[in-house]
Write a structure and sequence with these properties.
InterPro entries: AKR, AKR_Detox_Biosynth, NAD(P)_OxRdtase_dom_sf, NADP_OxRdtase_dom. The chain is α/β, with parallel strands linked by helices. The protein contains 14 helices and ten strands.
Length: about 350
C-alpha cells in the first residue's frame, strides 16, 4: 500500500481508504450501498488491514449511527491499527439542536460518535456541510477545544465551497485554532468540479482531498454501456435521484475511453478510473466501498501500477468539460503564465 500525507498535517494515510457507508445500512439510499453486519464488516476489515488499508470513514447519519456502531464493533481489539474518520453536522435527531455546527451539537455529536465507535478519540473529524447559521469563529473554537481535549486529532470539512473553507482557515489562523487538513469531496472522471476551485485551495492551504464516490455513483463500474439499460443489480436504480446529474454523452465518452484502456492494460474499468484519480494533485486518499469481498479485492487492484501519461491524457480529454467563469481562463491557457503547473495539468 502507498501512504500519502494528509494535507500539511505531517500525518500519513493510505492512498485507498474504506468507506463504511456499507455497514448497517437500511432505507432507499444506504441499503443500496450495502448492509453488512459486524461479522461481515470484520471480514472486510481483515482484508483491508492485511492490504494496508487502515483508514475507515463513516458518519453519524449513516443509518442513524449504525455504521459507526458496526465499525466500532468490528474494530474491537485492534483500534490501534486503524485510522477512524467520521463526520457530523447533518441532522442526526428530531430535536431543534440535533443539526448544524453549534457548540452544543458539535460537543454532543462527538460524544455520541465516540460511544458508538467504542473509542476515546477520533483520528479525523469532518464537518459534513457548512452551517451558515453558526459563526465560523464559534465552530473553529469548539473544534479546537475538542482537539485540545484529545477527543479529535485532525480536522476536515466536506461539501464546503472554496470561500467557506478559506474563511474557516482564516479564522483558525487569526486565533491560533486548529486548521482543516482534509477536504472530503466528490471527485471522479465524470465529476471534475473539484478542480475548479477546491483543488487550487487545497494546493495553497495544504488541505488534502479525501475523495468520495470515485466511481461516479456507480456509473464507472464497467457495467454501464452506451445503448444498454441499467443492469438489474445496479444501485443506480435506487440512488440515481441522490447523485449529481451527468451528461449521458459525456458519460459514454468516458466509458468508451476506459474500455479502450482496459483492453490495453488488462485492468478493469473501476481500477483504471481509480488509478486516474490517484495521480491527481492534492488527492490524499480515495474512499472505496464494497458490498462484499469480491468488490473490495477488485478495488484494491487500483494500487501498485500507473497509467501512462498518454492514457491519462486520453482520459482527461474524454472527461473534459468547460468550467464556468471565472475558472475557464485557467484551463484554456489564457492565464497559464501565472498558474501553478499542477493546475495547468489538472
Amino acid at each position: 500500500m502507498e501512504y500519502r500525507w494528509l494535507g500539511s498535517s505531517g500525518f500519513k494515510v493510505p492512498a485507498l481508504g474504506f468507506g463504511a457507508g456499507t455497514f448497517g445500512g437500511k432505507g432507499p439510499l444506504f441499503s443500496a450501498w450495502g448492509n453488512a453486519d459486524a461479522n461481515e464488516a470484520r471480514r472486510l476489515l481483515d482484508i483491508c488491514l492485511e492490504s494496508g488499508v487502515n483508514l475507515f470513514d463513516t458518519a453519524d447519519v449513516y443509518f442513524d449511527g449504525a455504521s459507526e456502531s458496526v465499525l466500532g464493533e468490528a474494530l474491537k481489539g485492534r483500534r490501534d491499527k486503524a485510522i477512524i474518520s467520521t463526520k457530523l453536522t447533518l441532522r442526526a435527531g428530531d430535536g431543534p439542536n440535533d443539526v448544524g455546527a453549534s457548540r452544543h451539537h458539535l460537543i454532543t455529536g462527538v460524544e455520541r460518535a465516540l460511544k458508538r465507535l467504542n473509542t476515546d478519540y477520533i483520528d479525523l473529524l469532518q464537518l459534513h456541510h457548512f452551517d451558515a447559521m453558526t459563526p465560523v469563529e464559534s465552530v473553529m473554537r469548539t473544534l479546537d477545544d475538542l482537539v485540545r481535549e484529545g477527543k479529535l486529532r485532525y480536522l476536515g470539512a466536506s461539501n464546503f465551497s472554496g470561500w467557506q473553507l478559506m474563511k474557516s482557515q482564516a479564522v483558525a489562523d487569526r486565533y491560533g485554532y486548529t486548521r482543516f487538513v482534509a477536504n472530503q469531496t466528490y471527485y471522479s472522471l465524470i465529476g471534475r468540479d473539484y478542480e475548479w476551485e477546491l483543488m487550487p485551495f487545497g494546493l495553497d492551504q495544504g488541505v488534502g482531498a479525501v475523495v468520495w464516490s470515485p466511481l461516479g455513483w456507480g456509473r464507472l463500474t464497467g457495467k454501464i454501456r452506451r445503448g444498454q439499460p441499467l443492469p438489474a443489480g445496479s444501485r443506480l436504480h435506487e440512488t440515481a435521484g441522490f447523485a449529481p446529474p451527468v451528461n449521458e454523452e459525456r458519460l459514454y465518452r468516458v466509458v468508451d475511453a476506459l474500455d479502450e484502456i482496459a483492453a490495453e492494460t488488462g485492468k478493469s474499468v473501476p481500477q483504471i478510473a481509480l488509478n486516474w484519480l490517484l495521480q491527481r494533485p492534492t488527492v490524499s486518499t480515495i474512499l472505496i466501498g464494497a458490498r462484499n469481498e469480491e468488490q473490495l479485492r477488485q478495488n484494491l487492484g487500483a494500487i501498485g501500477w500507473n497509467l501512462t501519461r498518454e492514457q491519462i491524457t486520453r482520459l482527461d480529454a474524454a472527461s473534459a468539460v468547460t468550467p464556468p467563469y471565472p475558472y475557464y481562463p485557467y484551463w484554456n491557457g489564457q492565464f497559464a503564465e501565472r498558474t501553478p503547473p499542477a493546475i495547468q495539468t489538472a
